[in-house]
Design goal:
Blueprint lengths: L7 E5 L5 E6 L7 H31 L6 H8 L3 H7 L3 H24 L5 H18 L1 H13 L4
Length: 153
């Protein structure tokens, strides 16, 4: 479908949720668009709580010892609410890994943007990753231990 002046643009954030409803023609959004925007914001907020809780629970218990019930409880979300956003524990984990990897990539890109030369860029990227892992041990455990361990189940 080709966009028209009256169509609505949807942008997505790193977690894949609709981030903003914006009429393309510069007019004020109508009531249905505003209501959809509020619903999208609630979905994005709930999904974010689930991802944040999953990071804490997976880091504490590990992938195999974590149940969806643990994540639901930690996110203050019903089990049905978790399953509305994710079909299973693996999907939660993969979304979390995707989100964390995106955060690391953003950090690396930022650190190398001011460097000149290949060696300096590699050094800056490695330093930014090591600093992130040192200051966020849960990030390190999830990305280095849990992801690697999934192949051994």
């Amino acid at each position: 479908m080709k966009p028209t002046d009256a169509s609505v643009c949807f942008s997505r954030d790193r977690r894949g949720e609709v981030a903003k409803v914006q009429p393309q023609d510069g007019r004020e959004p109508d009531e249905a668009e505003v209501r959809f925007d509020r619903q999208a914001e609630r979905r994005r907020s709930t999904r974010g709580r689930i991802i944040d809780a999953a990071m804490r629970v997976f880091a504490e218990k590990g992938y195999h010892d974590t149940a969806v019930d643990d994540i639901a409880r930690a996110s203050d979300t019903s089990k049905g609410g978790v399953y509305f956003h994710f079909p299973n524990k693996q999907a939660i984990f993969l979304s979390l890994v995707d989100y964390l990897a995106g955060q690391l990539i953003d950090r690396m890109e930022s650190s190398i943007s001011t460097e000149r030369g290949g060696i300096a860029k590699v050094d800056a990227a490695l330093c930014s990753v090591m600093e992130a892992f040192a200051s966020h041990r849960s990030l390190a455990r999830i990305l280095l231990v849990e992801v690697a361990g999934l192949g051994h189940s």
